Amino acid sequence: MGKKGGKKTKSSGLDTLGDITSELFKTLPPIKRAELTKVVEKLANVTANMKSEPSSPAKLWEEYKEISGLVEKVREIEGGHSMCRTLPDRKAAIKPFLAWIAGLGGVMEGVEVADYGASGLGLKVCRDLKEGEEVIRIPQKAMMSVDTAKASSIGTLIEKDPLLQTMANVVLAVHLLIERNSPASIWEPYINTLPHSYTTVLYYSSKQFEQLRGSPAFEDALKQYKFVARQYAYFYRLFANTMLKDYITYNEYRWAVSTVMTRQNLVPGRDMETPVNTLIPMWDLANHDNGVLSTDFDPEKPATVCLAHREFQAGEQFTIFYGVRSNADLLIHNGFVFPDNQTDSLTVKLGVAKTDPLSATRIKLLEKLGLHNTTKFYIKRTAEPLDGKLVAFLRALQMDQPTLEEYTVMEGCDKLSDITVSSIRILV
Is the pTM of this model over 0.90? Predict the structure, then answer.
């Protein structure tokens, strides 16, 4: 201690009790909280005023630069001040996880958890497996879902909040964050096995987004980033006067969203009828490969059941088929692309120009064909890549007025969707 009337002792840099408490418990000091609130308010206003469908990729990029600048300020202020529980080493968490899942009735036959380096954890085949053989069975009581969220401490909030009422994936993300920090959570052994970070576009730098320019994923990736930034700002406001404000930082929220994006599936809920967004422990360790869907739900047990979608030899990696997904979709929502993706496709968006003097007649014909004036189509990686409706749309765009009028009133205009038709005048 310094002498009375003498020089002041050197300050620790923590001048208030609030600062000391914040440092001890990693909460945000009051001054930084006030600074953060101002930035988040600006982020909320900016994202709320932006259209979901900008007029061009260039406009979307300008929006992204403004949003990302604010997000980086948020991350800088919040850095080191999250109360969120630190996850343990994934590999060290596997043994207690396996004991936990087995205690709940989970079964894993012929496979074991293995480390696949850059691909992360996966499942390795321990013995030869036959096609159709049951490999994984996870009881419903082990799954984390929108149903368990509604039955948890946030159930009342879900009933009242307009965002949570309409976005099941967001419900699951918030549920996951709260369970991660609950000392009594039954899912702690499962949560401990989850990745600490992801390769989804939510983790991209501006340079990485730049590298997506010109790709099919560019626009949707920027929109995904914008939507999550908007959601974070929304929850910051919602939880401003609660303890949750010290847990739901931007970094933690994007982690929860990425966990859900990369792992969620629709599974029958507790009523055994309505599908709900669900995280399935153990099953979600399986990586993707070409094949067929081989996971189903057993309502009598009840449990999620995964079968081998092909024959597997001992030593191989056990994989499942994530469904018909383009590489752009896999990149945005799962954080990877699959070079040999047999279900890859290219999205093409077509529309009738407002300046087209024949727009009204074209739209009338498109409506007769069951098409909107602006429609997304998919060019598939198949022997016949073109969709019949895409062909019909292109034909309608190329017609002159007499031909448009003729096909608008004639029977059998659906022949415009026939890729093999060669007798239609507009193609001659």
Answer: no
